[in-house]
Amino acid sequence: MSVRKFWDIDRSPVVLLVDGDGGDDDPCDSLELTLRSETDYCVETAGDATAALDRLDRRPAVECLWISATPSDSTRLELVDAAADRDSALSIVFAPTDGDGNEWIAGKATAAGATDYVPAAASTEERVERLDVAVDRAIDRRHDAEKRSVLDAMLSGLEVSMYAKDEQARHVLFAEIEDGLDPEKVFGKTDPEAYHGYHSDHEAIYEEDLEIIEEGTRIEKRLEPSADTDQWMQTTKVPWIEDGTTRGLVGITFEVSEFKRRENELIRQIARLQQIPDYVEHDLTNPLSIAQGYFEMARAGDEDALDAVEESLDRMAVLLDDFHSLATQELDSASTRRPLRFIPLVEEVWEYVATEGATLELDVPPETMVVADESQFRPLLKNLMGNAVEHGSATSRSRSRSPGSVADGRSTSTVTVSVGHTEGGFYVEDDGPGIPEAERKDIFEQGYTTSADGTGLGLAIVQESARLHDWDVSAAAGELGGARFEVSNCMVGTPLNSTPTGRTFELTESVDVGDVVVPGTASGRDGTYRVTGAGDNIWGLVNEFHFFHTVVEDGVRIQGRLVDLERASEWSKAGFMIRSGLEEDAAYGFVGRNVKGDPDVNWRCEPAEPGHNHQIEGLRDRYEWFRIDRLGDQVSCSISVDGEHWQFVDRRTVALDERVAVGIAVCSVASGESIETRFEDVSVVELSE
Length: 689
Prior knowledge:
Helix 1 (27-38) packs across helix 5 (124-157), helix 9 (257-299) packs antiparallel against helix 10 (305-328) and helix 12 runs antiparallel to helix 14. The chain folds into four domains: 4-155, 3-Layer(aba) Sandwich (Rossmann fold); 158-255, PAS domain (Beta-Lactamase, 2-Layer Sandwich); 261-493, Histidine kinase-like ATPase, C-terminal domain (Heat Shock Protein 90, 2-Layer Sandwich), CATH 3.30.565.10; 499-688, Jelly Rolls. Strands 21, 23, 24, 28, 33, 34, 35 and 37 form an eight-stranded antiparallel β-sheet that branches. A seven-stranded antiparallel β-sheet has the order 22-27-36-29-30-31-32, with no helix packed on it. Strands 4-3-5-6-7 form a five-stranded parallel β-sheet, with helices on both faces. The protein has 14 helices and 37 strands. The protein is of the alpha+beta class.
């Protein structure tokens, strides 16, 4: 018998012989001699059951336990039972020493756990053959058990999405990863069944799985963005084939968002840097030649020519500023977002881009705030309003490339630029000629311009600034007849104009919203509470959390300080919520923070719609105080460092009934794990207009 390999360790299989006390002609003695002389097995012996069990408890593991016994020796049957409990991979061969009671003893041995029975009449050669088979089976079982142990360790310890699905694309193995679904809840379900409410592309994935299983196709390292988040995933899926038959598929999916984000940043940065020399050469040549030409005219005595020189130099300064913004925007992309006063920023930027004859109209309440990174928000405003001034003029500003048409270069233009705010966004529009509908998607591409003086960089900068804020920007027809640029998915608006009436409410009801695996709890009094909660998330179609609340009619405010927040995942969160009801699909507004310390705002403005999440990242101060107000269908959120000076952050129209549930919401964002939070100075008060 050759040496058998167990993973990376070469050793001989171990055979343990238990003497049957059958005298000098005991078949076990003859078997031992043959095994030692003709095989490479490591042969060991034990005189009784106690010695055999002691050996089974030591390493290396025994592959075959060969038990010789007289039919009347009940201790050998007890040994079979005990050995089977010790090692499920062990082969146990029961071999009586005489022929009496064979059928009875065979049945008893098999019932106790023996894997084979060798009658007393068997020859030594037959016994060796049966032992070889028993050893091979034990090795196979041990290998299978070791492979399963390694697989279990990979599924639970590597934090990588690995899975196997059967011939109907139902999950049979699923990795246990942080913030992932519970493997027990996923087992036996297809993607549409398991992921309903989590992402919108589960039906397409299911169809793809069936194609892999039925057609034998493969997917190798495919990169793709998630349908509902900004994550990028790399997926490999191949058929699961056993003995030539397709049993299903196996797959592995990595999140590569950070690598993809950095790759895209570098590609965009390189592309911009490669294009800038062409822009510089093209766009600076014209104003430079104009300045040089008019400078010669001024030197010859034409004093008015200096105005054209100054205008050309100003034009070059603007171009250089655009080049700098485009080249450095990604390098400066570390976000520091905070609530900013909207109107002062617009007015400051307007002073920079406005020309003679240009008028600014503000359709924005004075107290409007926007949560943004000021260093990235200013270039967005500057280029949106500058584009409106440049392209929205009633008289097109043209300039010859030679100094011979100075009058055209100084022509006066008129344009009205309107800036206003919408639900979750704002707009900039003009009363100019507008943008043809067919061109509205192209205008954000670098280099796109319809002006002889244009760089084609301004709207590309706008799109990059919006992307860095996770905002959306689009072009449309304006109400003034010209172009309208809409920026959406922002935190922008005005706080509610409300007054506390003095009437207060107590939080009294503790309930889990949604299909929460681990029940939550709430305790405390007089504004100090400890609340625990589990749940998959408060986001999208998922609404699973613990809610400590009360029911209030009409206007209401809840505020307080979130002191302690345990971590179960990087997205664990807690805060204050107002919702239309306790149903999982109810409309709601939420403000609080996550375990990273970032304020977190969540909205579901209509029942059963996906919820949307906004995080305020990069704040210099730590915000622990949160407040949410409701008047009618208007809900606003505010944050504070000290509980006295409040910063408004967002306001939305939410479909609420007269009666609403208001309280503390806690979500671990880890289905099977609960977190504990502590709130202080919590108050619930009635509001009136």
